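Much of the work behind modern protein science is quiet bookkeeping, done one molecule at a time. The protein below has been through that process, and both of its lines are reproduced in full.


***
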Amino acid sequence: MRRTSASLVAGALVAALAWASSPSSPAVALDPSAGVADLTQDLNQILSDSRLTIARAGVVVKSAETGEELYATDAGKLLIPASNTKLFTSAAAAETLGLDYRFTTSVLSTGRKAGKVLAGDLVLRGTGDPTMLAEDYDALAAKVADAGVKVVTGKLVADDTWFDARRLGNDWAWDDETAYYAAPISALTASPDKDYDAGSVIVAVAAENGKVKVTTTPDTGYLKIVNRATAGSETDVLIERQHGTRTVVITGTVADPYQEWVAVDDPTAYASSLFRESLTRHGVKVLGRTVTGAAPEGAEELAAHESMTLGELLVPFMKLSNNIHAEILTKAMGRKAANQGTWAAGLKVTTDFAKANGVQVINMRDGSGLSRRDGFSPGSIVQFLSAVRGKPWFGTWYESLPIAGNAERFVGGTLRSRMRDTPAAGNVHAKTGSLTGVTALSGYVTSADGEPLIFSIMLNQYLSGSPKDIEDKIAVRLAQFSRASAGGDPVQLRATDPGPAGDLECSWLKPAQC
C-alpha cells in the first residue's frame, strides 16, 4: 500500500516553513515597479496566443508575502474550473474531517451463534472507503472464519446507508457512465489497484496461441465478459461495458497486451460479491441471498478494516486527480457535519468553508469538477489558496499537490511531464484541471527572488489545440520573476515528449499512458 513516506512528511515540514502565512524576509527590489511591469508585459504577450482569440482567459498572480496583486485579467469572471474544484474539496476535507480521519468497513452479525452456525444475518457495512481492495475484503472474510463462523443461516446484508443512494453526480455526462473517472459513488465500494479508482475493474486482453485471453483485476465473476476480439497484427480493441448492465463487450483485434479501467454498474453489489466470494474461499457458507439494507440496532461486530488516514489519501487523490475520492470525501463531510451522506450536505460544507475564507465567486455542483456547471473565478481561487496557508494541515496538503517536472508519479503527479528542466521544475506546486475546451492550473511558485507567489490560470472555450503550454509558460515566467529585473530567456517547457497522454491529466488516462 502506498503511504506518505518519511521524505514526503519531511518535505511537508520544509514546505510549511517556506510557505507559512507569517511574513518571510522581504524580497530584494531595487525598483519594485520595474520587475512587475516586465512581468505584466510578458504575461500579456503569452496570453495573446491565437488559440485564445475567441476563448476566455482568467489569470491572477498575487504575492503571498505582501498580498499585492501582481497581475490580473478577468479576475472576477465565473469560469469552469475542471479539477481545480478539488482544491476546495480537499482543503475542506482536511479542515472538516481532519488529517487523521479514516474510513471503517466492518462485518456485523445478527441473531445467535451456536457452535459454527450463525442463526441470523451477516452484515457488511461501509463508510465509503475508496482504498478497499479485494484482498481487504478477503481479510475481513478470514476474520469471520477465524471467529468460528462456518454457516450463516440468514442473508448477507450489504449496508451502504452511510451515504444516500444517489450514485452519479450533478450534470455528469451520460457517455461517461462506464468510465472509471465517473464511477458510481457508494459507501461500499472496491478499487482494483493502489491508484484506488473505486468502483472500477481492470479488464485486460492478450493474444495467446491465436486467441484473445481476457483477465480481470481483481479476479471476479461479477462482470459478464463477451469476448468478440480476435488475435491480429495490431492492437485495435474496444472494451466497453454496456449501458445499465454488468456486461462488458470486447471487440477488435489484439496483438500486444492492453487493459482498460471499467466502472461497474453498482459498486455496492460489486463489493458484496467480492466479500461473498472470499467467504466461500474461507469456508464460510451463507445460505441466504445478498440484499441491501441497514444493519439493525445491536448488531455485533465480528471484524473491521480501517483505511489509511486522510493525510495519506491526499497523495493519490491530488497527485492523480482522483474524481471518486473527491465525491466520496464530499459525502463523508456531509455525513459528519449534518449526518447526511449526500452531495447537497457535503457541498454546503465546502462552500461554507470557502466563503469563510474570503471566496466570493463560487458555484459547486460536485466535488471533483466533472460538472461543467461548476464555476469559480481565478481571483477567488487565489484568495482561497492564500487563506489556507495559515491552516495547521497546510504543509501536508501543499505537498499533496502535483509538483512540476518531477518524474516520480506519486510526487509529480499530473505535472510530472511538464516544465522539466526549467526554473518551475520542483518549484511549482499546483492543481491541474482538464475538460474538453477547459484547462486550468492553480497553485504556488517561488520567484527568482525567493518570494512566494500564488497564481490561478483558467482557460475556457478554446476550440482546438490545448493551451496547456500557455499555462506552463506563465508558471515558468513566475518562477523567473524578479522585482528588480526582467525575466530570463525563453526556456524549453518540456524536456521530453509527454507521450500519448498529450494534454490530458491522469484523471482521464491511466498509468500506461501518463
